[in-house]
Design brief:
With 232 residues, the chain is α/β, with parallel strands linked by helices. 34% of the residues lie in helices and 28% in strands. The protein folds into two domains: 1-86 and 166-232, 3-Layer(aba) Sandwich (Rossmann fold); 94-165, no CATH class. It contains seven helices and ten strands. The structure holds adenosine-5'-diphosphate (ADP) and magnesium ion.
């Protein structure tokens, strides 16, 4: 369903851009429909870069990304944008995914509006359905991000990410900013939605225990490479 072959990404860094960091170094990875794959590794091992390459938020220097048989690395502009609606990112910090000036309702409705998918009534219905699916209440929809807890914010980000019925989610340490008990409820929510919607998920974490709970398989990454793969 989603596959990366021979992926490589080098960042130029340093103030003079004279240092090269090989963030992803010849990675092959494949996630099947409805499969949850966990990606563990220390900070700086290249996990986020790999996740963003699979979503084509970062273009790899080498290698290809194939999604449902279509080579994304060959596409540009409109075609790529259309397919990218089927793949979504849940970032570590929910505030990165929500506009602080918008009420929650508008954040969740925005993807539907951008793609002109429904009229006002259908939009309201869909937003309410998504809100319920992630365990938020109607009253949350009138609030701004700063009026919500971390767990509620992350639920809202998940609702927004699901608006266009994606097939593939990259969850990049989605619970690492939350306290432990909230962490557990958000992880349970993601696992429930994954089964219900038959989502393919790449779940990035530095927590090996969590990786084993969430993943059907666990990939471990070190220095830009996938070191080993464990079936749970
Ligand atoms: N935009 C960037 N510019 C320069 N270096 C980057 C950039 N993004 C990531 N890196 C570097 O690439 C390496 C891998 O980063 P990252 O993928 O964020 O790792 P992880 O998510 O496992 O912590 C790190 O050394 C990081 O500093
Ligand atoms: Mg990261």
């Amino acid at each position: 369903m989603i596959e990366g072959r021979g992926l490589r990404k080098v960042f130029k860094s340093g103030i003079f851009r004279n240092k090269a960091v090989v963030a992803v170094d010849g990675v092959n990875v494949r996630i099947d429909e409805g499969e949850a794959v966990a990606l563990v590794g220390e900070s700086g091992s290249g996990k986020s870069t790999l996740g963003r390459i699979l979503l084509m938020l970062i273009r790899p220097d080498e290698g290809k990304v194939v999604f449902e048989g279509i080579e994304l690395t060959k596409l540009k502009g409109k075609e790529l944008r259309r397919l990218r609606t089927k793949m979504q990112l849940i970032p570590q910090n929910p505030e990165d995914a929500l506009d602080p000036r918008w009420r929650l309702y508008d954040s969740v409705a925005e993807p539907l509006r951008v793609h002109g998918l429904c009229d006002k009534n259908e939009e309201e219905e869909r937003v309410l359905e998504l809100t319920k699916a992630v365990g938020l209440k109607e009253e949350h929809l009138g609030r701004y991000p700063h009026e919500l807890s971390g767990g509620e914010l992350q639920r809202a980000v998940i609702a927004r990410a699901l608006a266009l019925n994606p097939k593939f989610l990259v969850c990049d340490e989605p619970t690492s900013m939350l306290d432990l008990s909230t962490q557990a409820t958000v992880v349970r929510l993601l696992m429930k939605l994954q089964r219900r919607m038959d989502l393919a998920i790449l779940f990035i974490t530095h927590d090996v225990e969590l990786a084993q709970i969430v993943g059907d398989r666990v990939l471990s990454m070190a220095e830009g490479r996938i070191a080993n793969s464990v079936v749970c």
